[in-house]
Structure formats: structure tokens, C-alpha cells
Amino acid sequence: MVHKLFDIIPSLSSNQLYIIGVDGLSRSGKTTFVNQLEKELIKRGVDFCTFHMDNHIVKKNERYQTGFEDWYEYYQLQWEVEWLRDHLFEKVRCSSHLTLPYYDNESDDREYRKVDLPNEGVILIEGVFLQRKEWQPYFNHLIFLDCPRNRRFAREDPSAQINMEKFKERYWKAEDYYLRNVKPRKSANYIVNT
């Protein structure tokens, strides 16, 4: 599948950064797909840098029990959407490095790290809700991994599956909002059924 994908992406010209977004709902296979893309880029000798949006979420007290509905917390408060637009998406093409907050789940804290960027090649950005209006314009190419909810849910850790109410009220309502209002299948350049 990755080989076919490279056939539809225009040839990379020198002195250009090509921004590829890998979008998809929870457990749709985004990380696995990006790993395959990275192997293909290495094989082709293309310089790249990868960002996983889940590395840049906020602390729990900023996204849980905020007074908003659960689904809204997940969709709007999980990330500093505008800050990431200004400090990641706006700057990734014109900077030699970025300084971004990385979240640590064990400590529930964030640490700022410097990330060096290639002068040319590919920036891979992987995450859920990538095609939200604040981020969508910055991609050269958007891939949406499409996978039925029942199959995605079966991939969840069994201990997580016990909390069905959280999935219904937090994750699935946010996903439904995204599918209904953003329509990622329509705006993606390429859909991969996983």
C-alpha cells in the first residue's frame, strides 16, 4: 500500500519540504502506517522528520473535568490547537528547528524539546483530527485511514474496553462531530482502508 501511495505523491524536488498528514480516528493504524512510510523514505534516501500529535497533548487538568462536555474536552482541549498552529504548523516550513512541548503520561507533565528539521524532504505529521480547520491548510498531502469503529474498538486494550461509557461520551461523540462537520474522507487526498 505504501508503494502505491508514493506513486500518487508528486516527485520531491530539491530545496522543498513536503508536508504529509496521516489522519484517522483512534486505533485506525496511523502509527503503523507512518512506520511503513518512514521505512520507504529511508529506502529512497529522503530526509524526513515525524511528529505524533499525541506527544503534544496538554496536562490532564486542562482536558478533564473542565466544565465542558467530555467530547468537547477531547476534540478541543486535548491539544492547544491555536498554539500548535502558530508554533508547529506555521513554522515547520521556514525553520531549521522547533521547540515543542512533549507530554509524559507517567508524570502528567510536559517538557520542551528542540527538534531539528530537514532542509528538504518530508515532514510526517500523524494524529487524530488533523483536518480540523486550524491545521488542514498546512499540508501538501492528507491521507485518511478509514477503519470501522467496531474493528478499532477491538484493538483497544481490554482494560480500557471496560469503560464503555467513556468511549461513548468522550471519544465517539468527538469522532462523530469530526466526521459530520469536517468530513475528512472528502477532504483527504487519499483514503486507506485499514
Automatic annotation (TrEMBL):
Pfam families per UniProt:
PRK
| A GO molecular function held by the record | kinase activity
Q: Where is the Phosphoribulokinase/uridine kinase domain?
A: 19-155
Coiled coil region boundaries: none
Signal sequence, start to end: none
Under InterPro entries, the record lists: P-loop_NTPase, PRK/URK
Q: What's the protein name?
A: Phosphoribulokinase/uridine kinase domain-containing protein
The record lists the organism as Halobacillus halophilus (strain ATCC 35676 / DSM 2266 / JCM 20832 / KCTC 3685 / LMG 17431 / NBRC 102448 / NCIMB 2269)
